[in-house]
Amino acid sequence: MVKNLIGKAHLDRPLIISNRNPQRAIDLQKTLDPTKEKTVVASNFTGAVEIADIIFTCLANDDATTQIVDEVSRATNIMGKLFVDCSTVHPDTTDHLADVFAKAAAEFVACPVFGAPAMADAGQLICVLAGPEDSIPKIIGNTLILNMIESLAEGHTMAEKSGLGNDNLHQFIEVMSPGPYTAYSGRMMSGDYHKRKQPLFAVDLARKDARHAMGMSEVNGMRLEDVEVADKHLGDVQSYMGQKGDIAGIYGAVREKSGLNFES
Question: Checking DSSP bridges between strand 113-114 and strand 107-110, what pairing results, if any?
Fold first, then answer.
């Protein structure tokens, strides 16, 4: 997202980069803007907000998002500034953010995004622009992604064990379900889910999204049993791979429970 803002947005001043881990912000600047002509690294988030008019945030979980917003609202004057939060958080958290910004006379847009890092790199993320009460579609949308990966994992495991073969199943998926289904199918077959140094969609974040969805379903008097199954498999991925675990590692968990190796 930062790369595309630098390269495609018509900025009248440098883009300010901030990260809770300052070294990551410095490393990002070195990668995207080695001459430091188009970006400035802020040592902390409050400092970045003080000199910005529009602030995009994208944080790992609800606690981090709430902490950052609460701190900055107390530390500096944010009146008239526009905050766009791209994090995936619970609707209650979105309501809290909206309340904080309203009391500080700041503007707020909830803007969770769909898409893997490759889509972000290509500028093809799907943005779900919403008011405070409308973050529910994003959470429900994430359950569909979980269910897709769970179905693919079980399908590929059955294809291998039954003798059909993963290549034949992948060809069927390419014809019937191109796009994300085919992409995740390819990741499973190639072993990308266990070979990567850093996950594309970290298992910790996937489980956070699953918890939000299951919590919402309970409040509304129902169960998301497919999500419960996927979350159990994500727990297995977490145990096996730790922080390197990827959402596509569900395939490894299903394989292992079916008598195959975790690695494809």
Answer: unpaired
- 109: tokens are 């847009």
CA dihedral 56, 58, 59, 61 (to 10 degrees): 120
Kindly tell me if the per-residue pLDDT of 131 is higher than 70: no
Quick check: helix, strand or coil at residue 64? Answer: helix
Bridge partners (DSSP) of residue 107 are 82
Show the DSSP H helices in 104-224 as ranges: 117-121, 136-162, 166-176, 180-190, 192-195, 203-219
CA distance 186 to 31: 28
Say yes or no to pLDDT of 136 above 80: no
Percent of the chain with pLDDT over 70: 98
Regarding pTM above 0.85, the answer is no
Q: For residue 141, give both structure tokens.
A: 């949308």
**Look-up: residue for tokens 């699953």?**
210
Q: Which tokens go with 174?
A: 């390419």
